[in-house]
Design goal:
Layout (H helix, E strand, L loop, with lengths): L16 E7 L11 E3 L10 E3 L4 E4 L2 E11 L5 E5 L1 E8 L2 E8 L6 E9 L10 E6 L9 E8 L4 E8 L7 E8 L2 E6 L2 E7 L8 E9 L8 E14 L1
Parallel strand pairs: 3-6
Antiparallel strand pairs: 1-17, 2-7, 4-5, 5-6, 5-17, 7-16, 8-13, 8-17, 9-10, 9-16, 10-11, 11-12, 13-14, 14-15
């Protein structure tokens, strides 16, 4: 892979890796052979709701729309958002995507790995590769978090000083006993230890209202493309 990856096309497959899954979102609707929509209330967020119609494919982008405030289906006043989960899963791999997060206070833009199959959270773990929690419409910090163990233990690292509402290429490498995240070719987070999840996981993209600010009535978390690799 040649850095920086600035174009809208999928990058060249990096040496030592095999492309297993990709999407450039070129159609007019979400490819349900590759993804499914989130629906209902996110866990622990009573003022947030996911709906299918907030997942939009437009201009070769996956656009996760956030709107509100409005009366949600649970009767609360809050914000409606979009989220998708991939149909593909694997144990270990490389996850590369180009995105710009939602410029909305209180709106979290997330890219994560979630356990797949007949496994249980939090024991099977979770890798939040990108997660924002802005208190203003400017978003210049994010976190990467590893969840693990029966009591949902966590290891977390923060990244600051980047305007995440601009386009960036994110590159997460998950291997046995380690996870690293790079942004535009620069490593920004690194975890090493036996706490790293070691079972099959899928790649998910979602936005949701978590509070802490008042976002615009409409804002978008945009994803240009996704490429998932296995190690050769």
């Amino acid at each position: 892979m040649t850095w920086p990856v600035n174009g809208r096309s999928l990058p060249t497959t990096p040496a030592g890796w095999k492309l297993e899954f990709s999407d450039s979102f070129d159609g007019s609707s979400l490819d349900t052979n590759k993804w499914w929509h989130w629906g209902g209330q996110p866990g622990g967020e009573s003022n947030a709701w996911w709906q299918d119609d907030h997942v939009i494919i437009s201009d070769s982008l996956l656009r996760l729309k956030n709107t509100g405030p409005t009366v949600l289906k649970n009767g609360k006043i809050g914000y409606v958002s979009g989220g998708v989960g991939s149909q593909f899963s694997q144990t270990y791999g490389r996850y590369t995507w180009r995105a710009r997060v939602a410029a909305g206070a209180g709106i979290s833009s997330i890219a994560l790995l979630w356990p797949s199959g007949n496994v249980f959270w939090p024991l099977a773990g979770e890798i939040d590769m990108l997660e924002t929690g802005p208190t203003s419409n400017a978003v210049n910090n994010m976190s990467s978090t590893i969840h693990y163990g029966a009591n949902n233990s966590q290891q977390q690292q923060h990244v600051k000083g980047i305007d995440f509402t601009k386009w960036h290429v994110y590159d997460g490498i998950w291997e046995e006993g380690s996870f690293t995240l790079s942004i535009d070719g620069k490593q920004v987070a690194s975890f090493v230890g036996t706490f790293i999840p070691n079972g099959p996981m899928r790649f998910d993209l979602q936005s949701e209202f978590i509070g802490g600010g008042t976002p615009p009535t409409t804002c978008f978390y945009d994803i240009d493309w996704v490429a998932i690799y296995s190690k050769v």
